[in-house]
Design a protein that fits this description.
This protein is an alpha+beta fold and 191 residues long. The chain is built from 9 helices and 8 strands. The chain has a 4-stranded antiparallel sheet with strand order 1-8-3-6. A 4-stranded antiparallel sheet has the order 2-7-4-5. The chain starts with a helix and ends in a 5-residue tail after the last helix.
């Protein structure tokens, strides 16, 4: 049962055969996670890919002044990893934290490679999902770097409405790349 949500998500991108479903169940490990649980520490290799059945995860780093910057928040039916570290291209400078109790599926880099080699269909599905995530990151990068404050808040409301009442002002401000004080002072734009 724990894998059905992932399989249903993947089937939005193409048919998943019975043997592929079996491999997914073999390689993705279900985990019950707790709020504030750290899944990957900064400077540890990010050799895992997470799929969220329930709950919220975030990837964040700290700048030179110690301020936490949230790169991404993932929720139900989303993936989260540091793709550069996961693929072995870069070091991992992020921490992966659970924002609430939940259930996730986890696959290691080694098992992911085996899964991708086992099926060109799954590899094609992965490529489609990767393209979708790339588009999401480009849009987010544009919002963070070119939008004024009001437009950032409208973007938050339009693209992530379910986060507004679920996450703290501090986390939402970190996601927008602004201070908590600035967010609190201006959040009337989205309420």
């Amino acid at each position: 049962m724990k894998h059905e949500q992932l399989i249903n998500f993947l089937q939005k991108y193409g048919t998943v055969s019975e043997s592929e479903k079996k491999n997914i169940k073999n390689y993705f490990t279900p985990l019950q996670v707790k709020k504030k649980q750290i899944l990957i520490e900064k400077n540890s290799p990010c050799n895992k890919l997470f799929f969220i059945n329930s709950g919220f995860l975030r990837a964040f780093y700290s700048n030179d002044n110690g301020k936490e910057i949230t790169r991404m928040i993932a929720w139900e039916n989303r993936f989260l990893t540091n793709i550069g570290s996961f693929k072995g291209f870069t070091e991992n400078n992020e921490t992966f934290e659970c924002l609430e109790n939940g259930e996730i599926l986890c696959i290691t880099r080694d098992h992911f490679d085996i899964l991708m080699k086992s099926s060109s269909n799954l590899k094609n599905i992965y490529a489609d999902i990767l393209e979708m995530y790339n588009a999401l990151h480009i849009k987010r990068f544009e919002a963070l770097n070119t939008f004024d404050l009001d437009k950032k808040l409208v973007h938050l409301k339009q693209e992530f409405p379910h986060l507004i009442h679920k996450l703290s002002d501090t986390l939402l401000a970190s996601l927008l790349g602004i201070s908590r004080e600035t967010y609190v002072r201006n959040k009337k734009v989205i309420l």
